[in-house]
Amino acid sequence: MQYIFDMTRHRSYTRQHPRPFWLPASNYYVMAAAVTIGIFFLVWGILEDGGDEKPFIQAGIGSSIALALAVALREVILRNARDRYLSAQRRMDRTMRALPTRRIIGNIDDSKLTLERNAAILRTIGKKSEAAKVLEKFSEGHREVFELCEKYLNAVERELPNVGVGSPRLSALRKGSKIVGEYHHYHLLQMTEIDAKNLAQKSKSHAKVSDKLNTAEQALCVVEFALNYYPHDASLKDSQKALSDLVSSIKVSNLIDRAERARSKGNYDRAVSLYNDALIGLGRSQFLSDEQKAAAGKIEAELEAVRLLSDEN
Predict the structure, then answer these.
(1) Which residues touch 208 (CB under 8 Å, ≥6 apart)?
(2) At 251, is the secondary structure helix, strand, or coil?
(3) SS3 (DSSP) at 55
(4) Conformational region of residue 51, where left means phi above 0, alpha means psi within -120 to 50, and beta covers everything else
């Protein structure tokens, strides 16, 4: 089996260890301060309406408690959770490195698969697979097993034409190919699910539209990579549909925002063009959800309103 997708491109998106979401301290505390100020004025307004003589005192106490809780949340709870996550990642890395991959498989591309070597490779892949399953939420372990399986399957495909019909290696290689093929499928799906989910979540956390779109397209690329190997896998096709809808929704939302800005500036022709582009973007989905249908209806209503304004001017 040969690579039928650009593996280098896939690695550029997913090679780094996935990290738990961690808002930088400056951003976190700015956000916490904004929330605290909001709570202060909210409590003040409620108490003032209730006839409290000094509402600002209790409002100040309440907002101070909220700020203290926000600090404790980041510095204690979230930091501990993050440290546990990274500790588990390092533990998995040590486990994977402890297995003798290079000594047994390092030169698989240019060495003959003898019975002994074939058995050793299968044992190593099996152990790596078990290690990856122990901490299954980390994609790096699954990726390493997938790549080992890919190497082995390529080597078997290259070796089989040179094996005699009566050779004991024939059945051993065919059996090994079947076993490793199952590992290959399982770990590719696990790797894809973890990476795609992490990228999709990361996309939603971005503020800039370009960053949202770029990260969502990366997630879609990860799934399409796996689909090149298993094009009929139902879970992969479902993920592809969901991510395609996510990419489409980001593009459509951006077009609507731009159309509304153009409308507010009196640039009605530009607004009409952008609303039409948004409708075309929604129309690319094979099956529209209820939410998408509602969005399409809203866009058509806005489009009609802008056309009327354009005609009046």
Answers:
(1) none
(2) helix
(3) helix
(4) left
Residues 59-94 have pLDDT tens digits of 788 778 887 787 777 666 656 655 555 555 555 555
Write the pLDDT tens digit of every residue in 143-202. 999 999 999 999 999 999 989 888 999 999 999 999 999 999 999 999 999 999 999 999
Name 31's Cβ contacts closer than 8 Å, sequence gap at least 6: 23
Sign of CA dihedral 40, 43, 48, 54: negative
111 SS3 class: coil
Q: Which of 259, 266, 267 is nearest to 303 (CA)?
A: 259
Residue 129, Cβ density class (10 Å: 0-12 exposed, 13-18 middle, ≥19 buried): buried
Among all chains, which residue has been given the structure tokens 């799934």? 223
CA pair distance 199, 212, nearest whole angstrom: 10
